[in-house]
Design brief:
Length: 376
């Protein structure tokens, strides 16, 4: 259940109450695709870097080790050691982005595994059953992720299909949650708004799925190459028609500036691989901007990555040491930088919540929205 505590213009301060704990929002979910953060970071590490929600991937865990294996191990939380809320995405994005060969029908999608090429079928019911086996706190509805740009008529038909699939997801989740041996009988379902960058399709689709009374609503299919200004226009158009008493989730976004802009427009929840992916290539987020730890100027620099940061990495390690680790090809370089970046994102969300609590979010937004983009 989502509780809206207060607002500052469109920005919202709230909390999401789940069977696995309460999430203070706005919040960022840390992406553990295959039940682990890439960069040798474990679920136990997440506790040290202010993580509230871990996100895992339905498609990848279905292929390896298999959702049946995860179920036998007690679900994804017990499997990983993470005791907080977990969101699992539906697998839809991966089906459409990773599968070279796929055939979309009303029943669902037949596609080839990106690992070994074997044929797999996934539809709304299959996605719900996999996520039920994973035992996540929140399951995402199975949707079609349409390429941007797409033909208007195709996008319109896809929206209609995604809405029909959503109704099937809801019915199947209700059935699964009622079974006596379900790992999490309180699993929540979030629906996903689609429609490419066509404002009328986005608005109509949002109005339609808002009537289903789901636990939360996501905006999907953005941050896939369209200009940031277009993304913000879509958020503004859709936000007006999202239920006020339900949590809003912007999928796959983004940079610290993107997050600030989206909070400013009424979004509550975020996820993105960017902080961990960029970290593995030496790019560290700081309050001054983005720092490239591969730069030679850090060879003799005894300062932490960010002098204003109190993460476990900045408290103990110098820029010179992390620079050396990258140059030496040591895995520790990635681990330390990933931990710093995730802490930066989680701490940013805490600072946003504090600003909202103290009625100064607008000033915080104005101060940092451009600063975070700066390359040092």
């Amino acid at each position: 259940m989502y509780k809206l505590i207060k607002r500052e213009n469109h920005a919202r301060r709230g909390e999401l109450q789940t069977v696995h704990g309460t999430v203070q929002t706005p919040a960022f979910m840390n992406v553990a695709t295959a039940a682990a953060i890439k960069g040798a970071v474990s679920a136990y590490d997440l506790k040290d870097i202010k993580c509230q929600v871990m996100l895992s991937n339905t498609y990848h865990l279905h292929l390896r080790p298999g959702d049946d294996v995860v179920r036998k191990m007690g679900g994804v939380r017990k499997f990983t050691g993470w005791d907080g809320p977990v969101l699992t995405d539906s697998g839809g994005f991966q089906v459409f982005s990773l599968a070279k060969l796929r055939n979309i029908k009303e029943e669902g999608v037949t596609f080839a595994s990106h690992i070994d090429g074997h044929r797999i079928f996934m539809g709304p019911e299959e996605s719900m059953r996999i996520q039920s086996n994973l035992g996540s706190t929140i399951a995402m509805a199975f949707d079609e992720c349409v390429e941007n740009p797409a033909e208007y008529d195709y996008a319109k038909n896809s929206c209609a299909r995604t809405a029909r699939w959503l109704r099937r997801c809801k019915a199947e989740m209700n059935r699964l949650n009622a079974l006596p041996d379900t790992i999490n009988p309180n699993q929540m379902l979030f629906g996903i708004n689609q429609g490419c960058t066509y404002i009328d399709l986005r608005v109509n689709h949002m109005k339609e799925i808002a009537e289903l009374g789901l636990d939360g609503y996501a905006i999907g299919g953005l941050a896939v190459g369209e200009p940031a200004e277009v993304m913000y226009e879509v958020i503004e158009a859709v936000e007006e028609h999202m239920p006020q008493d339900k949590i809003r989730y912007l999928m796959g976004v983004g940079t610290p500036t993107n997050i600030l802009e989206a909070v400013h427009r009424g979004v509550d929840l975020f996820d993105c691989v960017m902080p961990s992916r960029n970290a593995r290539h030496g790019h560290a987020f700081t309050n001054e901007g983005v720092r490239n730890m591969l730069n030679a100027k850090y060879t003799l620099d005894d300062q932490p990555i960010d002098p204003t940061c109190d993460c476990p990495v900045c408290r103990k390690f110098s820029r010179a040491y992390i620079h050396h680790l990258f140059k030496a090809g040591e895995m520790l370089a990635m681990r330390l930088t990933v931990m710093h970046n995730l802490y930066f994102y989680n701490n940013l969300m805490e600072r946003i919540r504090n600003a909202l609590d103290e009625d100064r979010f607008e000033a915080f937004y104005q101060e940092y929205s451009e600063k975070f983009n700066k390359r040092i």
